[in-house]
Amino acid sequence: MKINTLFFVGLFALGFSTCIFPYQNNDALSLEPSVDFLNLKDGDQVSNPFKVIFTANGIRTEPAGQFKEDSGHHHLLINQPYIEKGVTIPADSNHIHFGKAQTETELNLNAGIYTLTLQFADGYHRSYGKALSKTIQIEVK
């Protein structure tokens, strides 16, 4: 009888402790910040003009101009690879900046196959590198 009582008291204590002292979910710990295209995927065919919508997960989207830890803004690179971590992203027709924290744009490209790279960078336009980039290939009809 004492063993049964101790067993149920122990079981109750274990169950009660998980309610009061929740254990961290390992899935949440393994999520790394990332960027992605919301409306396009690798291999898509599009017609002009077309919208490009992007997102950042696990990192805040903030306007450019000052450095804030764990934040930044998007850049869309056309026919360009990702930018190495710490390198300032140039501003030209193949490196489009979204320094007001925009998360979408409309493009009008000549017919052809294009590589689009979404690159996240800090408030000073310094790239977060490959870890916060996403590259897809699309065809414009």
List the domain count as a whole number.
1
Uncertain parts: 23-30
**Highest CATH level, the class:** Mainly Beta
Question: How would you state the average pLDDT, rounded?
Answer: 87
* Radius of gyration over all CA atoms, rounded: 23 Å
Alpha carbon gap, first and last residue: 79 Å
Q: In the CATH hierarchy, what is the architecture at level 2?
A: Sandwich
| Class derived from helix and strand content | alpha+beta
Given the C-alpha coordinates, what overall shape results?
Answer: globular
List the secondary-structure elements in sequence, H or E. Answer: HHEEEEEEEEE
Q: What is the percent of helical residues?
A: 10-25%
Report the strand count. 9
DSSP helical segment count:
2
Using the coordinates shown, work out and report the CATH topology.
Immunoglobulin-like
Relevant CATH superfamily: Immunoglobulins
Q: Can you put this structure into words, describing what you see?
A:
The chain is built from two helices and nine strands. The protein has a single domain (32-140), classed as Immunoglobulins (Immunoglobulin-like), CATH 2.60.40. Strands 2, 4, 5, 6, 8 and 9 form a six-stranded mixed β-sheet that branches. It has a three-stranded antiparallel β-sheet with strand order 1-3-7, with no helix packed on it. It is globular, with a radius of gyration of 23 Å. It starts with a helix and ends with a strand. The protein is of the alpha+beta class. The model is unreliable at 23-30 (pLDDT under 50).
